[in-house]
Amino acid sequence: MNSRRWMLPLVSGVGAVLSACGTVHYGISALTPAEVNTQAVAYNHARVQIRGYVMIGTDTNLIYQSRALHEKFSREYRSTSYNDRARLERLRKEAKNYCIRIENPSTIRDYLKPYKPPQVMMTLTLSGVLLTDPLPPDIIPLGGCDNDSRLVVDHVSH
To answer: What is the CATH number of domain 29-157?
Structure first.
């Protein structure tokens, strides 16, 4: 009888450990645009989940590190003289690490269809395939990301 008493807690404990391992294994934490861009080659053609400040408009389709960081760079760009090429170049190089272009913004618009926003500016989590292959020279990317990282979105969540 004594040998059976300790088996039930042991079996329950094994089940708890296995279910906890399953949760950890399937739980994917979202990356930031900066984390993805620092390892862009490693993530090329990989499925990723990215959380950031999404901006979808007529000429902007991107996910940025955060709203605060986007506003900081926007203020710095606006306050810099067009003739101050060195500062503009420094800002451009620094800002490109914090954003990723969105290849198919219609997926996000469909997700937000009940709200019917004319433009999207909110923090979201996007899942999809990251592409970092260089763009062909005849393609002009919109949105201010001066890098080759772009996300083909297949899932959107808050």
So the answer is: 2.40.50
